Amino acid sequence: MASAPSKLYADDVSLVVVLLDTNPFFWSSSSLSFSQFLSHVLAFFNAILTLNQLNQVVVIATGYNSCDYIFDSASDLNRSFENGRMPVMSSSLLQKLEEFLIKDEQLSKEEPEGRIKSSLFLGSLSMALCYIQRVFRSGALHPHPRILCLQGSPDGPEQYVAIMNAIFSAQRSEVPIDSCYIGAQNSAFLQQASYITGGVHHKPQNLDGLFQYLMTIFATDLHSRSFIHLPKPVGVDFRASCFCHKNTIDMGYVCSVCLSIFCKHHKKCSTCGSVFGQAQSEAASASDKKRKTPET
Amino acid sequence: MNNGAGRRINGGVEEEDDEDDVNGDLDAWERTYTDERSWESLQEDESGMLRPIDNQALYHSQYRRRLRSLSSTAARIQKGLIRYLYIVIDLSKAASEMDFRPSRIAVIAKHVEAFIREFFYQNPLSQVGIVTIKDGVANCLTDIGGSPESHINALMKKLECSGDSSLQNALDLVDGYLNQIPSYGHREVLILYSALSTCDPGDIMETIQKCRKSKIRCSIIGLAAEMFICKHLCQETGGTYSVALDESHFKELILEHAPPPPAIAEFAVANLIKMGFPQRAAEGSISICSCHKEAKVGAGYTCPRCKARACELPTECSVCGLTLVSSPHLARSYHHLFPIAPFDEVPSSHLNDPIRKQKINCFGCQQNLLDSGNKAGLAVVCPKCKRYFCLDCDIYIHESLHNCPGCDSFRHSKAAPASED
Asked: Which of residues 350-379 of B touch A (CB under 8 A)?
């Protein structure tokens, strides 16, 4: 009983959860049009599904006001390989995507100007992690999950703490987060996510060849990654930003109660309100140096 | 005497009557199964395979009880995030007892290793030291430090047990060391006590008062039986005392000490600690590493103050003493500051409402909540966004993820519409 299934679930079966950015604010100002982007991406999904019969693709759309599941290749409706058609093309993916976009637009409300128009990346990342936990629970034989983020929207700084929680949870469960950033600037969140979880981050230079980037970098399953040269993380910036000015600093002061970071000495912490005992801080740092013992 | 004899005979006769009435001529081993037949709770599914015994409801109710006890007081309790913890391991004769398989000390060592890793994972800025009690004398096994490997390696080498245990000597030693740490740190001691007695040179009550004045929070996990002196120590210093029933219970108890405990505000002075956030050196750069004292190529971190190279973070620069961390280390503790509210249980009548024609799926994992595999009535709802989740997602969200997918997936949070798909 045990030997036959193990031959089916070889090391290179993968479950790819794709987080698709559908933020209208980003797509209206992008050089690549959304329909061209979709044509690259749908071809990519079909390619993944043909790499191995047991591969599975789940798509979650990241909108501006909401997130939702769009497509699951393991559900019964989508399994048909009849008439030689690819499962993703003949499925309801496009239809559901359209329904999602309409619903997303209806949920929008008036917002003050000047806010960064970021998508709800955090919501779709949390949903993806819950889905992957369900796959882990389904027994010993399951495909190896990974998350692929196709993002173009800028980072929303208010999501920082929650995104870090999600990244650490993914690191704990050993789920790599790959990210392909198609926007204009760099996304520090995606770089950190891929670095911490052991995934691949890439920002394609030429968006017309997006399909080629996706196929050569992001289609490889986890087992084969040890044999293939993938883009290495270059210059991941882990410096913190100070809470008062949002500048990146390389030396700063940290409140011992709430761990907020400041660039200058303050009398009171603005996050937790604790008053700092200044006389002790000099004595503390002096005794810190004396007490320190070599680690070898 | 006669009465006693008479009573005994009567007692014997009554016993025999009982047995004859109820159990007939059953053997002793059969009698133990008259009340409890564990095999009858097994179930088969459609193909004849055995279904695992449903412990899920039990597990979930245990989990919720624990959650409620943790968040019963205030929603946001201040926690001590920078902790200096001493683990005191009792290596007296009692620790070589074999009531825990293979021996108490083997179980302790295995779980202390797991605890140290979990502790540094959850508290990257904290430091740990190990103290052992052997032959009535307390010795410091490792100095307080932030590298898990050095503690684990030192522990695994010295596991011989002999002699008596002395609580007072251990507390005196720990008190001496913990008085040297900076004032913003929270001082804690975790004692893993296997003995049933303590052999002290002086008055232990004085030592307990001394610890209390030094603001050290002592917690004890006993492996034998409950002792008054341990309970008294924990009550005086504000720690927790628990006694392990078996190995899995011991594991649960020790891992409960990994997340930061509620902090008593007067115990640690709030301070601004100067820290450096080094950048990762470029691939291919060569420099002399300050921790290994040899030349190394490539990945390392450069101290922003003195430009010395360090191999890993978090650490203290060995040249200038600056604490070096990276922003994810600080971010790892932020979920303690912004905890999410526990989810409420949904009564089964609500889920089986005939008006709802469509299937209800768990918002996180899209599992059908009305499936026979997941018995109806076992679902939870987030009080803020009113979305349904299954039990497993509930546990995952509260223990590991710390974000509610429902609240995060809607920018302008509205209550969910009646139908969900």
From this structure: 362-367
Beta strands in B232-361 (DSSP E): 241-243, 272-276, 279-280, 286-289, 294-297, 301-302, 309-310, 315-316, 323-324, 344-346
Question: Where does the pLDDT of residue B173 fall: very low under 50, low under 70, confident under 90, or very high at 90 and above?
Answer: very high
Mean pLDDT of B227-244: 92
HEC string of B121-139 equals HHCCCCEEEEEEEECCEEE
How much is the ipTM here?
0.82
Q: Which residues of A touch B181 (CB under 8 A)?
A: 291
* B408 contacts chain A (CB < 8 A): yes
**Helix or strand (DSSP H, E) at B380:** strand B379-381
Vertex B193: Cα angle to B191 and B198 (nearest 5): 105
Interface check for A107 against chain B (CB to CB < 8 A): the answer is yes
Give CA–CA dist A97/A74, Å, rounded: 18
Long-range CB pairs of A90-95, under 8 A, 24+ apart, other chains included: A93/A42, A93/A59, A94/A38
For residue B185, is pLDDT > 60? yes
Tell me how far apart the alpha carbons of residues B136 and A161 are, in angstroms, rounded to a whole number.
48
Interface of A with B in 237-276 (CB under 8 A): 237-241, 249-259, 261-262, 265-266, 269, 272, 274-276
Phi first, then psi: give them for residue A46, nearest 5 degrees: -60, -40
CA quadruple A220, A225, A231, A237: dihedral sign: positive
* Cβ pair B405:A126 closer than 8 A: yes
* Inter-chain residue contact B182 with A129, CB threshold 8 Å: no
The residue written with tokens 């929680």 in the block is A165
Best CA proximity match to A163, nearest among B332, B220, B274: B332
The least confident of A45-59, B36-50, B106-120 is B36-50
Question: Among candidates B194, B188, B258, which has minimal Cα distance to B221?
Answer: B194
Mutate to test the interface with A, among B272, B332, B389 (most CBs of A within 10 A): B272
Q: What pTM does this model have?
A: 0.79
The answer to whether the Cβ–Cβ distance between B411 and A120 falls below 8 Å is yes
What CA dihedral angle connects A76, A81, A83 and A84, to 10 degrees?
A: 160
How far is residue A216 CA from its own chain's centroid? 19
Taking CA atoms, what residue in A is nearest to B394?
A130
